[in-house]
Amino acid sequence: ELQQKGEEAELLRMELQMLETERVRLSLVEEKLLDVLQLLQQLRDLNISKRALGKILLSTLESCCAPHPGKAQLFEVLDTLQQELAACELLHQEPVERGQSPQSLSNPLVISC
């Protein structure tokens, strides 16, 4: 009976470790998604065209093609999209257009995982 309890405890420890690993993975995905959404908001504020956003998205999807999609590939797509958006030239230009006030274009939430 003690051996059975020990085996059950070990199984519970392994399950807890798997849950913790999944929690960390989800936390990283959440942070990356927040980065992407912030960059999209900044680009929207700069009136980037839908065509330009579409090109960024298609470029991201093409660069992340994998024969066996899964969780790792989905995170890779999200990470690549964040990098593509952060590299967008509009985010690095000085906002000098008429009628616009200068905006802070730095991205304090860029996180590489």
UniProtKB/TrEMBL annotation:
Supply the source organism for this entry: Cephalopterus ornatus (Amazonian umbrellabird)
Q: Which gene encodes it?
A: Efcc1
Q: Could you tell me what this protein is called? A: EFCC1 protein
Question: Cross-referenced Pfam families, in alphabetical order?
Answer: CCD48 (PF15799)
Q: Which InterPro entries match?
A: CCD48 (IPR031601)
Top-level lineage group: Eukaryota
